[in-house]
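Homework help board

Subject: predicted structure for assignment chain

Our instructor gave us this sequence and asked us to write out the predicted structure in token form, then describe one feature. I got the tokens but I'm not sure how to describe them. Can anyone check?
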Amino acid sequence: MRRVLFFLLISTAVIFANLPKSKITPFIEAARAQVGVTTIYDPAYVRIKFPMGDIVKSRGVCTDVLVRALRGIGIDLQKEVYLDKKRHPKRYKGLYYTDRLDPNIDHRRVKNLQAYFAAKGYRVKGAFKPGDIVVWKLPGSNLDHIGICSDKLNSKGEPLIIHNVGAGAKEEDVLREYNIVDHFRIFAK
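My token output:
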């Protein structure tokens, strides 16, 4: 009987070890890998290649953290937003001073990412989970900010945030520091 039980335990462990790994963990790891690498907040407009274009890794803004994290799991947000805006321009109309298509910057704008994620049905309510994407309004301004929920939790059981709010990519306990205006979950658990 012990041998059968042992065999069942080993078989179950092997089966679970071979299940496809969730994309949440590699997504968070790709975001976290930017901490200490992207050290400069730089919102400058830069011409970049298309698709898979990026500015220098040492520089970026909040959206670059998200774009790079998704690229870490094979999703090119630059291409996806460009194609979606091309197919559905009304979805993005009036979000910025110009409505023209621009693969250099469209994916690096928070309102465009909100429009894209909402159209894909990723908006959620309720508790924040690792891998979720959060959008805030920064205090004292009308500036939008975006970040990724970490798999590390604070003392209240809420995720830390991986983001770049002005001093490079960081992983910090700031979920409730700003006014939350949107919440997305692109990976089902």
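Reply (TA_rk): Your tokens look well-formed. For the description, you could write something like this. The chain has one domain: 22-184. That's the kind of observation they're looking for.
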